[in-house]
Structures are given as structure tokens and as C-alpha cells.
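Dihydrofolate reductase
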Amino acid sequence: MNVGKSSSPLGAEGLNTPRGWGLSIAVAVGENFEIGKNNQLLWHMPADLKYFKQTTSGHTVIMGRKTFDSVGKPLPNRRNIIITRDKNLKIDGVEVANSFDEAIEITKNEEQQVFIIGGSEIYRQALPSTTTLYLTTIHNSFDADTFFPEFNKNEWEVISKQAHKADEKNKFDYTFEVLKRK
């Protein structure tokens, strides 16, 4: 079964997470794998933001320039790498790579997980070599122009899953899953 279309980063206490170097994707998607519209997230879910922070804190995060623009600043307590075609881009607190392969080369000596945190094109390039997928599903459909790429869910094993109901701070039901490539 192929699922997916585009994304955001995750991780959290209580979930089983692989240790050691590996390429991971952190993404939050709607029920149709939608991840954004007009370079913005489609929801405000404090629980997912907390999960993302816990999961990626202390690690390297790799993102495309548009994702960085939507975030607006380097993420604290993380090594930030931006992939851009702009060979002259310089931003304080950020390393710049001009291709996905260059970004991976920069991180090859890491002794921990490296997280891909968006956007859609970067996810597409990373998915074939990703070993772990931190997937938050927001249980609603959204009007979107950006999607997480399709992937074969049969190639992945669910190693952790936590379902949560909407509450006063989180408007929608949501599920945190950690999937490891079989």
C-alpha cells in the first residue's frame, strides 16, 4: 500500500527511538498527507511542536530554504543545515549546502540521528535513504498545496504508536508514530 504526499519533524518521550547515526524524517501530515499551503503549516498543534522539539533537540536538522523561511530563524539547540541553490546565501547560525548530497556529506561523521524536516522536495530526496520516520498524523483533511511524498508503508515497521484526542490546546485528534525501515 502506497501512502503519502508531504511534511514536519517529530520525536518524544515514551517512544522507542533508534540510537546511533541514521537518517530520519520528522513530519506532521494531515490524513491525505498534506503538509502545508503557501509555505505555512496547516495547523497549530502545541503537542506536536513539543514532540518535534523533544525529538530533534541536540541533533542536526536539514531543511530546504523555503522551510527555513517559514520557520524564520535557526532552531535552537540543533545544528541547522539549509539546502539551497543560492551559492551566496549566508545566515548566522546556519550551515548552507547546495544539494541534498552535500548536506548528507556534511553530516556523515555524526554519531547520532540526522533529521530531515522539510519541505516536500527534500523529503522526496531523503525518503529512499531514510531509516526512521517520525510521523505525526493530524486526523483531519486540509486544503493544501504541499504534500509528503508517496511511500510504501509495507517497507516500514511501526515501532511505536501513541494516539491522542483533541483537547483545549490541540484542535484535532493526532497520532505519533515511529516507523523503522524493515
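thats it. The radius of gyration is 15 Å. Confidence is low (pLDDT under 50) at residues 1-19. bye
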